[in-house]
Design a protein that fits this description.
The protein contains 1 helix and 2 strands. By secondary structure, the protein is of the alpha+beta class. It is rod-shaped.
């Protein structure tokens, strides 16, 4: 019974660690095209293929994953 009381006091008094997965991590950035969170070191967004190093050279969202039609 004493252990239970000590455990309750401990839970109420000790602050939780800030290791929660809620919210973006410090080493991430937001893609300006699709608004997904990616690693800060990413050169290309893994969701929409946005090119962070050449912002003017990206594929529109409607073409992401599309196979080029080479039928003439």
């Amino acid at each position: 019974m004493l252990l239970f009381i000590v455990a309750i006091v401990h839970v109420l008094c000790v602050k939780p660690l800030n290791n929660s997965p809620i919210g973006p991590a410090l080493n991430t950035k937001k893609c300006p095209q699709c608004a997904e969170t990616v690693q800060a070191d990413a050169r290309i967004c893994r969701f929409c293929r946005y090119d962070f190093e050449n912002p003017g050279n990206h594929r529109p969202l409607d073409q992401v994953g599309a196979v080029p039609d080479n039928r003439n």
